[in-house]
Amino acid sequence: RSNAEKFEFQAEVSRLMDIIINSLYSNKDIFLRELISNASDALDKIRFLSLTDKEVLGEGDNTKLDIQIKLDKEKKILSIRDRGIGMTKEDLIKNLGTIAKSGTSAFVEKMQTSGDLNLIGQFGVGFYSVYLVADYVEVISKHNDDKQYVWESKADGAFAISEDTWNEPLGRGTEIRLHLKDEAGEYLEESKLKELVKRYSEFINFPIYIWASKEVDVEVPADEDDSSEEEDSESSSKEESEDEDADKSDDEEKKPKTKTVKETTYEWELLNDVKAIWLRNPKDVTDEEYTKFYHSLAKDFSAEKPLAWSHFTAEGDVEFKAVLFVPPKAPHDLYEGYYNSNKSNLKLYVRRVFISDEFDELLPKYLSFLKGLVDSDTLPLNVSREMLQQHSSLKTIKKKLIRKALDMIRRIADEDPDESSDKEKKEEVASDNDEKKGQYTKFWNEFGKSIKLGIIEDATNRNRLAKLLRFESTKSEGKLTSLDQYISRMKAGQKDIFYITGTSKEQLEKSPFLERLKKKNYEVIFFTDPVDEYLMQYLMDYEDKKFQNVSKEGLKLGKDSKDKELKESFKDLTKWWKKALSGDNVDDVKISNRLDNTPCVVVTSKFGWSANMERIMQSQTL
Ligand code: ADP
Ligand code: MG
Questions:
Q1: What is the pLDDT of residues 25-59, one digit of tens each?
Q2: Measured between alpha carbons, how far is 417 from 437 in angstroms, rounded to an integer?
């Protein structure tokens, strides 16, 4: 178009589009759920604004918050339209030309190798999946603050924007027109689209309509061979109306001659029933429904089931319903910018209206890996996000959510037959919980670090979190074990929980610090994650047992009768040695009972940094 303004895509977008348009990826269906998800987001936005300003919705059809799908078989166009917030010209340039989220290059890289586009929605680039099925796309959009514009691109590195002077005015919202590739003809079939909407967009909270054809029987005047009948038929229809006026005539003879023919008509057909799964009684919701709901909520369509979920109603001063999920996998950037960014993944609704998914007041950072939603009747609807953020109820909600979340995680362990050390119980649990087997190890491998960060950050729930802790030890035989299991194996008279820190289990197993402990059959925990050093500065005790780093001063392995004697006879040597190393080098030189073969070791003082901590601080791992 002559007056169109031309723009180039950000290099990264261009690369992404190249890959998508040339993709042989077989599951091209995903574009539709991405478009519907965007439409739904846009509708959420306008509905939220309308809470404080009714005017934004306008009037007439503009107030209908729905999504419409239409097909043009002849022109091979599939269009999806919403009455959401729309995009200004500036929005179009920014949102459909650049990538805001980080981690996109990682995604592009991954896609090039694996070819799996399923996770595209999680990376904030779902829109571009339209180029799986279309080679030319138009986005027509009208935002309340601007005129109507058309964005268009053939995925050739550039896009154009023009003020829209030729299409029908949208009123408000966005229409995406996909000019389908020849090989994407299946998306012109109503039945295909209906199936896709049912499969992928079941939990969209706005009505989705399709402009559906329908074969209907219509009565038409029967054709008569004789053209002279024309007058007759006219008169007979006259007769009919006269009949009606005359009220009910049973005389068949007087009825006009008609016949039935098939005719195709079109009408909007509703494809989803807008149901809020969280309002239903948990007893009536099937596992499959929860799984599907999780997929749509998390934009995670990797067929995997969530590891656990919790669906509950909180009553009392603050009433709310919530559904929480533990995802099957940690997102790639879970700990990226952990301390600076807010990555809460809970959606907040107030009385069924979506408010925000950026409320970091709902869950502490360490639980940000959870997905889910909260719908509260107690929170006010007509206030700004900022005001809501300060509402006193949020504290109560948060407290309850944490409690429920930790219960849910603990349940993964409780139901996992691998977790039970009691053999009989193990078998009993195993019989009806086969699919729960190994789930806690899976959880731990994905999210264990979050539990550790929780112990560091959340003093109130420290003990609850410590119960969830898993590690390897000198007695765990390559498996994960827990503090409770450690305690159950403690030797009579053993007061402390022993642990050692280092870079790997293999390295630690050779440590001279373990010699004597092993010989005396004491169990020692291996902590090999850099975060463990910090963890152990916060985790002082568990079930009245103190933690003792075996490479630090203070290790007590029970009294030995020879201790005193030895101390006496080596007095001169230790004195001399301390003098020789005095100054900055050592605090003290002592006779030790922690060694067996090794003649001497360097031990850290009780409140000093362990050797491992020194190493970590030098490399600034965390
Ligand atoms: P994401 O939805 O994760 O942000 P997308 O690539 O799907 O990533 O969309 C990019 C952006 O384009 C959205 O964040 C939104 O701002 C804008 N957008 C896309 N579709 C619509 C729409 N139907 N209405 C309004 N804005 C839209
Ligand atoms: Mg999207």
A1: 778 998 999 999 999 999 999 999 998 899 999 99
A2: 6
Q: What would the pLDDT profile of 585-604 be if each residue is shown by its tens digit? A: 777 887 777 777 777 777 77
**How much is the ipTM here?**
0.99
Tokens of 317: 């001063």
Joined together, the tokens standing for residue 475 give 């007695």
Classified as helix, coil or strand, 5 is strand
Going 91 to 94 to 95 to 100, the CA torsion angle's sign is negative
CA distances to 244, 252, 340, 349, 464 from 249, rounded to whole Å, are 8, 8, 83, 60, 83
Can you tell me whether residue 604 is helix, strand or coil?
strand
Q: How far is the CA of 173 from the centre of ligand 1 (A)?
A: 12
The conformation of residue 552, written as its DSSP 8-state character, comes to B
Which among 490, 525, 485, 489 is positioned nearest to 509, based on CA atoms? 525
pTM, entire model: 0.76
Backbone angles phi, psi at 163, to 5 degrees: -70, 135
Regarding the beta carbon of 82 and ligand 1, being less than 6 Å apart is answered yes
Place of tokens 């068949």: 252
For a substitution probing ligand 1, which of 38, 65, 131 has the most ligand atoms within 8 Å of its CB? 38
Collapsed DSSP state (helix, strand, coil) of residue 542: strand
Strand arrangement of the beta sheet that strand 353-356 belongs to: 308-314, 320-326, 371-376, 346-350, 353-356
